[in-house]
Amino acid sequence: MGIFEQNFKMAIENNIRFSGKKVDNPKIPMTLHPLAIEQRYAVQIRKIVIKPVTDFYKNRIIPNITRWVEEEKVRFDEFETEFEALQNELQDLQDNIIPADPENSDFRLELLAIATLLLAFNRKQWQKQTAKVTGLPYVAPENFWPPIRDQWVRENYNLVRNISNLQISQLNEIVYRGIRNSSFTKDITKDIKKVNDNIKDNRANLIARDQSGKLSSRISKNRQVDVGVDFYIWQTAMDEDVRPSHEPLNGKLCSWKDSTIYAEVPLKGEKPVWKKRPKSWTQVPPEEDMNCRCTPTPYFADILEEVNNDLAA
Question: What is the pTM of this model?
Answer without folding.
Answer: 0.93
